[in-house]
Amino acid sequence: MQSVGTRPLLLINCRQLLTLRGTASPRSGGAMGEPGLIRNGAVLIHGATIELVGPLDRVTRSLAARRAECIDLRGGVVLPGFVDSHTHALFAASRVDEYEARIRGATYSEIAEAGGGIQASARQIRTMSERKLIRRLMEVVGRFVEHGTTTLEIKSGYGLEPAQELKMLRAIKETACRVIGELIPTLLIHDVPARLKPRRTAYLRLIVRRLIPEVVRRKLADCFDVFCDRGYFSVAEARTLLAAAAQAGLKLKLHAEQLAHTGAARMAAEMGAVSVDHLDHVSDADIRRLRKHGTIATLLPGSVLHLNSGRYPPARRLIDAGVPVALASNFNPGSSPTLNMQMILALACSQMRMTPAEAIVAATINGAYAVGRGDRVGSLEPGKQADLTVMDVDDYREIPYYFGMNHCRLAIKKGRLIFSKRGEGL
Ligand code: NIG
């Protein structure tokens, strides 16, 4: 990692610069198709903050630009660092055996019923020390950064037992202090631990009375999430948990309508959730509710691809109805083992008919709003954090077009170079 020093930094000759500028709110409708494109642009960074963004000649005329250290990018597409607003990036091991079992015909639900899935990841987490989890997560965050992600949400949810959930959240918090990439921790209630399966109500009580207050007291999470779906938590159970978390001051998110339609998305929207995530089975009536409440729809096409469910969430209907859409990797060992947001853009465009501009808006500024950071990250505007990535393409639409590749050449976080493909400084 390398600091760019105290002199202002001037990035010039960005072939295309996507500013994502706009109103101070999640983008919806037509605004989702406006990436704020500037050809031959420049960015002036002072410390951790963006000072000026615009066409090269205008930025270079400014007084501050004259004493800046000038970096000639010689082309490339510059855009805000991706904000990956839904990940389960902290896990102890892969579940590649389940992957092969699914290829041979088993379903995600059958594997879970046989004690695999989330329960398997929980057994693995239990045996791993907090120190090892931190080391593992630091490496994983480095991989996100290499692919252009500079801010990411990370859920707990593989601890299940309160003590293990706390261990996961502490590991995320400690990792956040050691890396420059920005981590947003979420307490996720994912499943009932095996030993408490016959005592669901007691488990829910434990979460409400002990775990949520403890997490808030120790400032271990910003957001709260529940896996509300067929075979996991019911809408009534999730409502109780969300109410307790909201009262404790956590932002609400919800895993909703992934495996079946349950009414979870509507319930969460009515409770003021900042986002509802997955939505493979969302209905038109739900979409109207999301629109009414301004809830962000976070779509996770990586899991549809990997589980081969064939049912992508209806991105077009959501956007056309005026719902702000975000895209996230959902990086996890069961349903979406990718952390490459560029691949997620490709799926969104090819499988869900989002335009490349809409997909980039969804993966940057709308992702930022989905984790409560829209005022600081997700767009390149004066006063915002200098978080950006340079992609080695000539046209931003080539990011999803040349799919399955890593185009990221540089990643800058808070004005500091945190990744360079060629291993050079700026
Ligand atoms: O978002 N759906 C619930 N949680 C994850 C999968 C977790 C796992 O299988 O480990 C998801 O897809």
Structure overview:
- The protein contains 17 helices and 16 strands.
- Helices cover 37% and strands 21% of the residues.
- It has 2 domains: 9-81 and 379-420, Roll (Urease, subunit C, domain 1); 83-370, Metal-dependent hydrolases (TIM Barrel), CATH 3.20.20.
- It has 426 residues and is an alpha/beta fold.
- Strands 1, 2, 3, 4, 5, 14, 15 and 16 form an 8-stranded mixed β-sheet that branches. An 8-stranded parallel β-sheet has the order 6-7-8-9-10-11-12-13.
- The model has no long low-confidence stretch (mean pLDDT 96).
- The protein has helices at residues 56-61, 63-66, 96-103, 108-113, 118-126, 130-146, 162-178, 200-217, 235-247, 264-270, 284-293, 301-307, 315-320, 341-352, 356-363, 365-370, 398-401, and strands at 9-18, 37-46, 49-55, 69-72, 77-80, 82-84, 149-155, 182-189, 223-228, 251-256, 275-278, 296-299, 325-327, 388-391, 408-413, 416-420.
- Residues 88, 117-118, 121, 227, 255, 258, 303, 330, 332-336 line the site of N-(iminomethyl)-L-glutamic acid.
- N-(iminomethyl)-L-glutamic acid binds at residues 88, 117-118, 121, 227, 255, 258, 303, 330, 332-336.
What's the end-to-end separation, in Å?
Answer: 11 Å
Question: Main β-sheet: number of strands, strand sense, barrel status?
Answer: 8 strands, mixed
What is the residue-mean pLDDT, rounded to a whole number?
Answer: 96
CATH architecture of the largest domain, please? Alpha-Beta Barrel
Task: Return the domain count.
Answer: 2
Q: Which residue ranges are poorly predicted, with pLDDT under 50 across at least 5 consecutive positions?
A: none
The radius of gyration computed from the alpha-carbon positions, rounded to a whole number of angstroms, is 21 Å
Tell me the CATH topology of the largest domain. TIM Barrel
